[in-house]
Amino acid sequence: MAEFKEISPNASAPAKLDNWLRNRFPTAFDAYKVHMSEYYAPKNFNFWYFFGSLALLVLVIQIVTGIFLVMHYKPDAAVAFASVEYIMRDVPWGWLIRYMHSTGASAFFIVVYLHMFKALIYGGYRKPRELVWIFGCLIFLMLMAEAFFGYLLPWGQMSYWGAQVIVNLFAAVPFVGHDLALLIRGDYVVSDATLNRFFSFHVIAIPLVLIGLVVAHLFALHDVGSNNPDGIDIKAKDYPKAANGFSVDAIPFHPYYSVHDMMGVGVFLMVFSAIIFFAPELGGYFLEYNNFIPADPLKTPPHIAPVWYFTPFYSMLRATTSVMVYVFCAIVVLAVLFVFLRSRLSLMAKVAVAVAGAIAIALLLAFDAKFWGVVIMGAAVIILFFLPWLDKSPVRSIRYRPGWHKWVYGIFVIWFLVLGYLGIQPPSDGKTLLAQIGTIYYFGFFLLMPWWSRLGEFKPVPDRITFAAH
């Protein structure tokens, strides 16, 4: 048992309370030191570093508003839609809580996408932060699951039919697909059983996992230290140290960045509030108009599409047609030919590559294009986990990479946005072709990264981080 620290009897009441708490809960104060006042971060954080704290803020908003919504929501297919209308019309300030929650879902994905893009351009996933990135990708995966399960709860037309379409995708999995879809639905169609399952996952299971992953993400980050726009490791042994033993270019997270982040929080809350009060549906992107109509199993909407944050991946699924499968086969053949003609591998290794290519083509042709669409949609997320090992660039940050690398990243972002837009629109031959090109670029960006990330003339990386006072 730790010794109690004494305090003068003449000390002020706040000082006595502080001493009383420190003696009885020292672990909390030690955690505050490790993760706030004595956690030293690079002093050159810029605009992109707001989004980590904003993601934490939106998580709190979602949890708090979710608690109040659960007080009045009824997870029963017969009255679920009516309970949401009751919240909107009769519960005091219920409309505000509901719009905060629905807008918060989209805001969560916006800040998380921007947070991930920051890591992408500044190399925040590179050694020694691989585990930080993996935890972040798991958070993204859980966030997608949380949004999917919550999307059914309003029991509107788009909620019902969107869930019907997405769950039916699992039926495309060979051998176990039908049973898997049945397990997820809890019934042969989306019904009251499905609603109860999704409600329990959305309210209890996924949030607990999500909170645990956020804590792990922060702990892992603070163990290895934050990255910075220059991609220079200020915790390296040979980096200049100040008298306190920390890097000369590091500052305590609190109060410097905790106050700094308040500016980002203020701007975010102004935009967030403006959307809630003036455009909570945001033209049907944040809340689809069809979702203000009660779910009708007998009337299928003319066009079913998921919420905007799922649409890039949904677009890839729709792009995987029979023709696309043949394109994949052609890409495998070209890859094998490239290995044979240009690679320095041994003959046995080349033969092994050829055999693997033949097996891949056989598998591509053996299963339906719908199944490969589901695989592509899942692979588009899973491939993010391998980013730390795909990037072979000698430098971390985009600042010191060849200029044309910025074009590669910029085109990647453009195609991702195009895929998102195409996923919302009704399909057509021209849009499907565009989605197929975007899908090939998306996977080419990652799968060819070990090759293209090493090419070009890299700029010299400075010995210390660059910083301009502002």
Which shape, going by the Cα principal axes?
globular
Whole-angstrom Rg: 26 Å
Q: How far is the N terminus from the C terminus?
A: 47 Å
Helix content: 55-70%
Calculate the mean pLDDT score and round it.
92
- Widest sheet, order of strands: 1-2
Beta-strand percentage range: under 5%
Query: How would a textbook summarize the main sheet?
Result: 2 strands, antiparallel
Spans of at least 5 consecutive residues with low confidence? none
- Classification by helices and strands: mainly alpha
Order of helices and strands: HHEHHHHHHHEHHHHHHHHH
Number of helices: 18
Number of strands: 2
Descriptive report:
The protein has 470 residues and is mainly alpha-helical. The chain is 64% helix and 1% strand. It contains 18 helices and two strands. Strands 1-2 form a two-stranded antiparallel ribbon. Helix 3 packs antiparallel against helix 5, helix 6 packs antiparallel against helix 9 and helix 11 packs across helix 17. It is globular. The two termini are 47 Å apart. The mean pLDDT is 92.
